[in-house]
């Protein structure tokens, strides 16, 4: 299936983008320090919590800090986050909004596994305007702004087209209730094409691996906005293709997302479609 074009994004005041980029980067650095200093302390979920969707004191603390800074720097711009909110159905009517996941990969964080992230994005009605993902264990801050490209610790990143899928890596993730419907068939389809599938426990880092050129694609069958918005900004600015479940180009799809290196989208999308029950 060929990806369909999306509506062009509007122009935004350059000074606003620059300020949002600077503030988001500062918050990502703050979060990276906190995560590396506190990970692996053995917290356990409450009986009512899903082990795939835990809430931690660190997450609450980082989100409160993020909200406090953003309310001072961007008064009147709403902030939605993993720990305290459900995203309202009218969120897109706010104009600009911030979306934060203070610890993406909480189960890994609690266990001390070195694979979790802090994710933050400024969003308008066309998708992410600014996005940052802090990768604390690799001492990396990935950042992007619309029309300004992606950078990893300040170094520009740009993807090149990939000619084949064989021997590549595709990332996916569990839902909060476990495997998504058709996941086993998706993995089997990729294996027949001699492609490895990895479930690493952080949606934002899964997408970031595509933006960085380490993985050729990431498929997320479901997610919350704050799981993916920051990383999608990276992927788009690095030159990855972002499509929804139907193969339509979208900067922030609402129902499933495929992020892929140029040249492999159609094949990976076919595996996803074939896997659907």
TrEMBL record:
CDD domains: IMPase_like
InterPro entries (alphabetical): Inositol_monophosphatase-like (IPR000760), Inositol_monophosphatase_CS (IPR020550)
Gene3D superfamilies: 3.40.190.80, Fructose-1,6-Bisphosphatase, subunit A, domain 1
Keyword terms of this UniProt record: Magnesium, Metal-binding
Keyword field contains Disulfide bond: no
Known EC number: 3.1.3.25
Source organism superkingdom: Bacteria
SUPFAM superfamilies per record: Carbohydrate phosphatase
Catalysed reactions, semicolon-separated: a myo-inositol phosphate + H2O = myo-inositol + phosphate
The name this protein goes by in its record: inositol-phosphate phosphatase
Originating species: Saccharopolyspora cebuensis
């Amino acid at each position: 299936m060929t990806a369909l074009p999306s509506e062009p994004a509007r122009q935004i005041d350059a000074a606003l983008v620059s300020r949002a980029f600077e503030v988001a980067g500062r918050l990502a650095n703050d979060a990276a320090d906190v995560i590396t200093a506190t990970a692996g302390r053995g917290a356990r979920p409450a009986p009512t919590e899903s082990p795939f969707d835990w809430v931690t004191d660190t997450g609450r603390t980082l989100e409160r800090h993020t909200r406090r800074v953003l309310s001072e720097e961007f008064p009147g711009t709403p902030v939605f986050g993993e720990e305290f909110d459900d995203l309202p159905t009218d969120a897109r009517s706010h104009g600009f909004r911030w979306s934060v996941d203070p610890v993406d990969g909480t189960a890994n964080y609690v266990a001390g596994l070195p694979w979790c992230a802090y994710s933050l994005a400024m969003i308008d009605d066309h998708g992410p305007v600014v996005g940052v993902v802090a990768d604390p264990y690799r001492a990396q801050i990935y950042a992007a702004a619309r029309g300004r490209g992606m950078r990893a610790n300040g170094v520009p990143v740009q993807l090149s087209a990939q000619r084949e899928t064989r021997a590549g890596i595709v990332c996916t993730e569990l839902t909060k209730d476990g495997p998504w419907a058709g996941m086993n068939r998706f993995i089997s389809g990729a294996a027949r094409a001699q492609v490895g599938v990895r479930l690493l426990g952080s949606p934002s880092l899964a997408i970031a691996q595509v933006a960085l050129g380490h993985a050729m694609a990431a498929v997320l069958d479901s997610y919350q906005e704050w799981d993916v918005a920051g990383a999608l900004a990276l992927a788009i600015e690095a030159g990855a293709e972002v499509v929804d479940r139907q193969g339509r180009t979208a900067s922030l799809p609402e129902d499933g997302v495929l992020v892929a290196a140029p040249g492999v989208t159609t094949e990976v999308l076919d595996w996803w479609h074939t896997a659907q029950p």
